[in-house]
């Protein structure tokens, strides 16, 4: 199988706080991997290390066969292959929806404005936000903002989509519309790495679930293996608390 990202022996500390300890896992092309675990277990840090918003202290991040930590000069190029969706949307509030979705395409991918608009329009349709091209983020609901953020990430045609708790900042009634879009992306074969607390969603969309606790991967496997028949005590305790 085609491995897109292969993480080996990854470690990360903030001062004396060892947040990631010898983390090993991979994401294959077309695979949907959900990362679960208690608050503070290191999930966001792991995602931020994967896209190098944080610099790991050790280990390897193999992307298409190359350790990108050994090729730091290519970070910008590497990052363009990853689509990131944050809890807090991170849209540009001074730009409208369409402008948000074309900026990176023009600046980073050097696409023509015409091509960028075409691509953005396609993905705004995917997330059901094509009627809002002229709206500013502050005119949108949280669910709508997050769908635009997803369209913006998709517009860069990334190899992997990374999601860090994309529904955690939403009012409960808006969670469904965002999960629906993500489910559709999963069904379409997109490669996705998702940090989430939505266990039912994780069970339904994941090819693999990775459970993290205190900076280590405790276990990983199919939703059935991890959620229904967990092998480790720490996983069982976590699942009892969340379900
Ligand atoms: P999770 O996403 O699983 O809730 P995080 O990766 O956000 O966990 O945090 C894991 C640990 O790393 C926490 O103890 C947190 O305080 C610490 N941490 C995260 N980011 C930073 C940072 N920029 N500086 C210092 N400590 C950090
Ligand atoms: Mg987090």
From TrEMBL:
Which UniProt keywords are given for this protein, alphabetically ordered?
Amino-acid transport, ATP-binding, Cell membrane, Membrane, Nucleotide-binding, Transport
Cellular location of this protein? Answer: Cell membrane
Per the record, what is one GO cellular component? plasma membrane
Which molecular function GO terms apply here? ABC-type amino acid transporter activity; ATP binding; ATP hydrolysis activity
Concerning PROSITE patterns, the annotation shows: ABC_TRANSPORTER_1, ABC_TRANSPORTER_2
Family to which this protein belongs = Belongs to the ABC transporter superfamily.
Q: What is this protein called?
A: Peptide ABC transporter ATP-binding protein
Q: Lineage from the top down? A: Bacteria, Bacillati, Bacillota, Bacilli, Bacillales
